[in-house]
Amino acid sequence: MLDIKTVYECNRCLGCKTLHPQVSLINLESPNLEQEAVKFEFYAILLIEDCPDGCYCCGRKYYDYSNATMVFLTPGEIFRMSENNTLPNKGYLLAFHPDLLFHTSLDNPIKNYTFFAYHKEEALHLSQRETAKVTCCLENIEDELHHAIDTHSGTILSRHIELLLDYCTRYYERQFITRENKNKAILEKLERLLDEYIISGKLENPLWAYLPPVPNIVRQNWTFLSLTSTTC
Q1: Going by C-beta distance under 8 Å and a sequence separation of 6 or more, which residues neighbour residue 167?
Q2: CA 161 to CA 41: how far, in whole Å?
Q3: Which of 2, 62, 125, 217 is deepest in the core (most CB within 10 A)?
């Protein structure tokens, strides 16, 4: 496992120039890491633009958007994209050290962005429009990184990051709504299957008079079982 302790070390490992000691935006085009997993000792946000398995390794379902995917990591978290890839083949990594947030508007509020505690399988899946907005936020961060460091740098960078996180909060809420509606439809389908099974008169043995055999549910409603394996 590769343990990356600083933003500078992260830049060095991924072939990126250090423009600020506490923040970096790294293009992940074909990252070449020999280690099977990576541990970031700082906040890391991954924008995944290409994934060999269609990002199913990040919990994407057939009813989710598929333009891009985002994963949020807290300091000390270990990440592995998939069995064959440590990091995504295409995308961006926004790395920022907790020290950047001291005495800024994002110092304490960052704890309110609960998606940093989500598992990789609970990633955020973006539409084309959402991806464009996220990319715009990242471009603003990159633009500020190319500005000479002064007394305003930390404040401006933290505000750009805060705006990005606010948009991600909005998009996660949209994803919850999308999945909730799908879950309701699947539960209604399961209810109908149970009703049909009861009406069919197959419930003769009172010991088994409550639920149909599990294999029947698996065969007729496998989507429900796969969906409930991931928290929505």
Answers
A1: 130, 133, 134, 137
A2: 18
A3: 125
- The overall pTM is greater than 0.90: no
Backbone angles phi, psi at 128, to 5 degrees: -65, -45
Nearest 10 degrees: CA dihedral of 130, 131, 136, 142?
A: 140
pLDDT at position 129, please?
97
Q: 128-145 vs 153-199: helix axis angle to the nearest 10? A: 160
Residue-wise pLDDT tens digits, 115-129: 999 999 899 999 999
